[in-house]
Amino acid sequence: METIYHYTDVHGLFGILNRNQFWLTDNRFLNDSTEGVYAKEILETHKKKLFSQLDETAQEKIYTALTISTPFETGEKVVFTGSFSTEPNLLSQWRGYCSKEGGYAIGFDFNELRKLSEDYDISSCTYVAEDAVKLWKSLISDFQKMENKIQESILKGEPERLIVESLREDYIQFFLTRVFLQIICKHPDYNEEKEIRIIKFLKAGAKDIFFHPSNAGLSHINRCKNEQNRPR
User: Fold this and answer.
1) CB-based contacts of 201, cutoff 8 Å, min separation 6
2) How confident is the model over 12-58, as pLDDT tens digits?
3) The total number of structural domains that make up the chain
4) Which of 87, 125, 144, 152 is the least crowded, having the fewest Cβ atoms under 10 Å away?
5) Which domain holds residue 61?
6) What are the pLDDT digits (tens) for 9-18?
7) Would 48 be classed as within a structural domain?
8) Is residue 194 in a domain?
9) Secondary structure in 3-state letters for 19-36
């Protein structure tokens, strides 16, 4: 994969070429009504398989960690995404992102975009249920490892405060990965899009969050400055 494409109208084209930047949209304002829901459905559907090797206590604890509301669901933090496709000429994308007057599919160097900033993640979306199952399984394994560390530390007689502090970053990464999983696992009905996403996590109310008019009213957007990689 060398080039990925961003579909937009003339206003989006002007902003990208003139200001060398594009905008990421608050995930809650995206067009897909199944956004973030499909991955949860996969978890529920395959729950028995995913938890088959765990005792009842572990199942309950891990399931709670996988389903409890995160700051991104309570509104304390916000996920912003920018949509790209590996396909340069998709009717569904022209319809979804371009105006009646016409639109543009702007090509970007994928590898250069990956260097954009440490503040952004870039990932292909998956539309395969089994891929989502594997991602949930990996997340369950990560949680088990953290729990094992806790038990080992307790047996060593380490103070609870130090145990919690030592695993703080691990737990933060666990919940970020959980949110990330829900963002990149999309319903198979959208498979044609072949979507690549740029993703950024921000605290609600951050100074670089702006309002933008959309079909749904006012939506949140975040500016993604592209200092080095100009579109093709």
Assistant:
1) 72, 77, 78, 79, 80, 176, 179
2) 888 888 887 778 888 877 767 777 899 999 999 999 999 999 999 99
3) 1
4) 152
5) 3-225
6) 888 888 888 8
7) yes
8) yes
9) HCEEEEEEHHHCCCCCCC
